[in-house]
Fold:
Amino acid sequence: MKRSILFLAISLGLSLPAAAQKKYDAGASDKEIKIGNTNPYSGPASAYGTIGKSIAAYFKMVNEQGGINGRKVNFITYDDSYSPPKTVEMARKLVEQDEVLFVFQTLGTPSNTAIHQYMNMKKVPQMHVATGATKWNDPKEHPWTMGWQPSYQAEAKIYAQHILKTKPNAKIAVLYQNDDYGKDYLKGFHDGLGDKKGMIVKEVSYEVSDPTVDSQIVQLQASGADVFFNITTPKFAAMAIRKAYDIGWKPTQYLNNVSIGIKSTLEPAGLEKSVGLITLGYLKEPTDKQFEKDAAIVKWREFMKKYYPEGSQIDNLNLYGYSVGETIAQVLRQCGDNLTRENVMKQAASMRGFRVETLLPGVVINTSSDDFAPIEAGQLQRFDGKEWVRFGEVVGK
Amino acid sequence: MRKAIFLTAIFLIAACALPFLVSNYRVFQFTLVLVYAIALLGLNILTGYSGQISLGHGAFYALGAYVTAILMDKAGLPYWATVPAAGAVCLLAGFLFGLPALRLEGLYLALATFALGVSMPQLLKYHHLEKWTGGVQGIVIAKPDAPFGLPLNSDRWLYFFTLAVALIMFLLAWNLLRGRVGRALVAIRDQHIAAEAMGVNGALYKSAAFGVSAMYTGVAGALGAIAVQFVAPDSFNIFLSITLLVGIVVGGLASISGALYGALFIQFVPNIADEISKAAPWAIFGVFMIAFVYLMPTGVAGAIRLLSVKRRSP
Structure:
């Protein structure tokens, strides 16, 4: 005990002078921290724009409560309409004109790819990007870029392992969206199956512009598969689930986390038709009855009511925005008075077991200098007609 | 005439001084303005002068951008060499597309080109082309530095490079449109039967106009790719084609200088709209557009022309 007090005293003594010294890069001062962001407020992906709005609302709350270490957050967000050239223009505006300390939650895989090199060349952190692609976890080549959510590939691998464990003789059918998101999942799934890739008897894709996926589901049923991996966005997920049920196809169904929403996917599909779906969760689902009285969700609802009343409380993207806000607020708290870009990156890469309460129980954020993937864990859950019932252990790191 | 030369000289001096007066980010934006101006000039040759409506010029812009990106990334060509290549590929593609499309007029041609514009992003994602196009991930290209040890940073150098190309393209267009070819195109637009009776080969001129127009847009696409340093299918959706059409109408149909005004509009007005309202940026953009069309029915170029005529005859 005595020794630990001594240790504490020494470490405090050592850290005090450092803490007293305030260090700033562009975008930070005694009064303010400037954070930049791009989001699709218009264009084909404008449904995601609510993430940017909920983050802005989150910082409004933070500022009203006194800011972070006494500094107000100035969150500057621009519309890039999900167009990569526009993202480049806006990122340059944020870095060169607005002089933000870092950019945060820029949304979309192509948009972030477009500024990947620029941000790393400028050494301005590209923090917690809003995409599930795997390439953001690359601290060696791109030390200024970091993701946040579990990568699509990691998620698909977990499904593959679960199938190998529970149904080693399965015949698998896959439906996927024909773009980077769908293909990323597919790659993770293939990698997860490894030399058992032959278990996949049929893979069919669809385009976002397709009116339905009925014919794809009929094809998949005809393949005689008894396991179905559904890599689709909410609208198509609902159609696929309903069609499979209606034509009497009853495989074990795995649904990607993208379409986990009960109000947005399962109700349109039909709750009774969704019984038995398996998915990997990492965030609490706001429309799930079991979380109705959950402290974190109640707190989030109050936040929504007060700071973002026009936002939808059944849209889990708004919970996502709030949760990433909680994460970056912690990073900034850890930075203390040393608000340099280097320290922001360093603090973001040294989170050990940090809990955001809106994450599922047992899911924590871990990063290190060679692990730039904050959330890598989740828990499998099965839909029982009313709510997602978690089973097994928290998997992943 | 002397006045026109005088104005052009002033414009050139201003254009050369500009990058030294503003930040690098603004220089980048003005580079994009020049890029759009070339594309708008191309579309104006087709729509403004020869009266054929294209809703798919974004496809040629994309083609030019990809030719440059692939040549730089896979073949290791220097950036300046890829610009003429992109122009040549688009000239051919435009001419070939123009041949069958000629049989379609007015709205039908608009629909055919619309189909081209809509399908382009998906063609770029096509599985068997992925080796070259990089699929949905696109291609990242390196940013060129100033040559010969010129004391310019890469943004300024790129601006001057684009300015030089733009000047050549504008000069070419001016030469082309004020002479026989220009008159023939306008004649076809206004009275194609009379034009044919005068001995104008309508079919040939129309496909040639399509080809040249595509070439301009392709060159713009190539320069745009170099400036942005990235191409991906999502950069070239149908909205790009429509934006280009908006640009020529706002700038002024059948006007060379209109391309520049239109480019300024499509580059800056969406940003202003976004700053006014995050909730409905396109509604604000729409208000701007209606205001422009209502106040200046012949485009900015037309309004300026009208003003100078009024001043001369009090």
Summary: The mean pLDDT of chain A is 89.
